[in-house]
Each structure stands twice: as structure tokens, then as C-alpha cells.
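Q: Please design a sequence for this.
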């Protein structure tokens, strides 16, 4: 059995009774697949980021479930046919949730090394050779 999260986006024009009937129908299908519903919550009506089937708001529902490996394919096939369901998202989650680090353990991150600019090099001093005059005796 694997853990999954299912998010449903329903047509906002459905009455609360029809929304409840649809979610119960989906939950019953999950239990018929030998799945188990561990959490179910309603997130209420929310504004959509973009219109879906000419709707700008929708009713959101979230469900945590455990199902056998062949369950997600059958559930997706079932959800695609449902006409009052605008969108759904079925995601596999890890068996054990990750535990956050305790606050007493500081998070250690390596600082990137900052390259130092090379010291400016001064051009060598020009030394002027002194010419010695050769004196010639006549």
C-alpha cells in the first residue's frame, strides 16, 4: 500500500449537497479499490488563477489516501469521466514524512569563497644608466 494525496477542484455551481454527494462517490470508489482514506478536508471556495471551463472560482477538497499500486491508474480513469470535476491532482507521497531539524541544531551552510583581487603591481622603476665620459688623451 502506497500513500497518496488527492486534491479535487469541483464546479462552483454545485450545491453543497451535490458537492458532498460527489465527494462521497469518489471516496466510495477509493474504498472499493481497497484503499483507505486517512484524511478528508474541505478548503472551501477559492478564486482560480485562470478560468477553467469559464469558471473563475471553484470548490476545493483535499484527501490523503493509501491504495495498492494499481489504484492510482483506475482512480485517474474514473476521475477523468466525472463532468462536475474541473481538475484533480493525485500525487504519491513518501511513506514517512520528513522530520524537521530541531532548532538547537544550527543549519550549516558553506560560504562561497570570495576570490581576492590581486595586489596591484607597480611597474619596475626605470633606472637611468649614467653614462661616463671617456676622456681621451691626445
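A: Design:
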Amino acid at each position: 500500500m502506497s500513500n497518496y494525496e488527492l486534491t479535487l477542484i469541483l464546479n462552483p455551481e454545485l450545491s453543497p449537497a451535490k458537492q458532498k454527494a460527489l465527494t462521497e462517490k469518489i471516496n466510495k470508489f477509493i474504498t472499493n479499490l481497497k484503499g483507505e482514506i486517512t484524511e478528508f478536508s474541505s478548503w472551501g471556495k477559492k478564486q482560480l488563477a485562470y478560468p477553467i471551463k469559464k469558471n473563475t472560482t471553484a470548490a476545493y477538497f483535499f484527501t490523503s489516501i493509501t491504495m495498492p499500486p494499481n489504484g492510482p491508474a483506475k482512480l485517474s480513469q474514473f476521475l477523468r469521466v466525472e463532468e462536475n470535476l474541473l481538475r484533480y491532482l493525485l500525487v504519491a507521497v513518501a511513506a514517512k514524512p520528513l522530520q524537521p531539524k530541531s532548532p538547537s541544531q544550527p543549519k550549516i551552510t558553506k560560504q562561497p569563497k570570495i576570490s581576492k583581487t590581486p595586489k596591484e603591481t607597480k611597474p619596475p622603476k626605470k633606472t637611468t644608466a649614467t653614462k661616463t665620459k671617456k676622456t681621451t688623451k691626445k
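Q: Thanks. Anything notable?
A: The two ends are 118 Å apart (CA to CA). The chain is about 20% helix and 35% strand.
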